[in-house]
Amino acid sequence: MFILNQLFGSYFSDSFGIGLTSEDVVDRLLSIEYNKTDENIIPIFLTFFRKFMKPYELVKMLVDRIHSIFSLWLSHYWNDFYGPHARKHIILFLDRISKYEYLTPICDSLAPLVVREPPSYDPDKSWGLVDDEDDNDLENEKKDSAYASGTFSVSSYIQHHQPTPPSPLSSPTTNEHSCELPRRAEFAGGLINIDNVAKPKHHYAPSFKITASIASTRTGGGWTSSLGTQLLASSFISSFRQHRSDKDQSSYNYKVFMKATDVTIADQLTWIEAELFSRIKPREFIRNIWSSSVSNDGSSFMESSSNNAVTASIAHFNFISAWVVTMIITQTRLNKRVSVLEKFMSIAVALRNHNNYNSLMAILAGINSASVLRLKQTRQAVCTKKVFKQFQSLERLMSTDKSFSSYRMALKATGAPGIPYLGIHNQDLVSLAEANKDFRADGTIHWEKFRLMGETIMATMKFKYPGYSIEPDTQLLTFIADSHILSEDEQYKRSILIEPRLASSSTNRIRDLWLRM
């Protein structure tokens, strides 16, 4: 808490600043002068408003003041219109303005966004406010307004655009025959599928058919595990295994891994990470935080996390970390373990050069896991390698000292493309969310809390564009995705097997005394 106070100062005090009413916040959104000084206010507001306002309430306020952010809201947060109340009201608004010629451009820009299939479910209902079921007041408003239908027909719209039953746990593209189709290697539970990736220019392994392979993961280390992550991780375990003995598989993995260059592997790890990062939307950060904390039965949490890119990124981070450990400890010969560890250190250097801090941290987490740290013979041999000093520099860069101050400083100096270490930024959001209440003592909105959380999210989102220009290599991606990952218990048992514990000096002395008797 001391460190966070240093970072954010008096923002953690409930007495900081002046509380705002819902009307005050909306007025700021529509203020040209305020938007010039705070360019992030609109995306931040759209990310958080459901913590203190219902979608219908926002619609009504915006209609009363003239629309300004409808286009952005409708384009990126269509799920807010899951309930019919907000949809009906915005259609009424379009009906009214369609009668005025000078408002036609507004009507033309919003109409395609409004007259479309309603969202199938609302992933934010587990943490945000929802519209009331009863919409009699809206019908009465229509009758009392002496409203004459213009371009749009509200009754026709309502009749033909009823919400479909929610099916959050199934993909929108899933059909009854999809399970019959063979799948190739996937990352993050199928979020990143390499079926349609271009053919590789270089071959690092013999071709083989993959029937169903999903990158496995573990829940220890890296980001904080949650129920959703554990359930998601359990679905990642690969069902496909090459029919090889452990020794043959280890030898095969070693040859493929060592044949690829350090930069090539770093490129492919960055390609995967960039694909995941590009899918993350601002609200997915807060769904990951608030959905799990407010859900009682777990069902709402699973609905919001089933297709959450942040949750998938957490699982992928843990997978890469576990992959590093598995690759090292499955080599029974010391010289091979040293070579693999040295190569991962070189890959870490290449990842830093790519500004891929998330994969870099995953590699560091694997190398510094308990199962690898205890390999004294392996680590002592690596200490003499040239890359070791560079690796030590990376450890200092990503050190947890002073709340990752070295990393934060480096990130500020980093330009796009880049991939921040999302774990620490996610923790910042958790700390900000828990440090302040949503409302102040006088009932006004604690806007500074949401603004700070929004600035944290926007600071990571700015690294999305421009993106990386990396060509995916299907052979290498398949090799990584299809890797068999040992559990933490299996990792530690294998670690002890390849480098057994040494008897302590005190035990040796007692044994010597016993033999002399």
UniProtKB/TrEMBL annotation:
Gene Ontology process terms (BP): Ras protein signal transduction
Gene Ontology cellular component annotations, sorted alphabetically: plasma membrane
Name of a matching Pfam family: RasGEF
Keyword terms: Guanine-nucleotide releasing factor
Domain Ras-GEF: 261-501
One term of GO molecular function: guanyl-nucleotide exchange factor activity
InterPro entries the UniProt entry points to: Ras-like_GEF, Ras_GEF_dom_sf, RASGEF_cat_dom, RASGEF_cat_dom_sf
Region (Disordered): 120-142, 158-179
Domain of life: Eukaryota
Record-linked PROSITE patterns: RASGEF_CAT
Name this polypeptide is given: Ras guanine nucleotide exchange factor domain-containing protein
Annotated source species: Mucor circinelloides f. lusitanicus
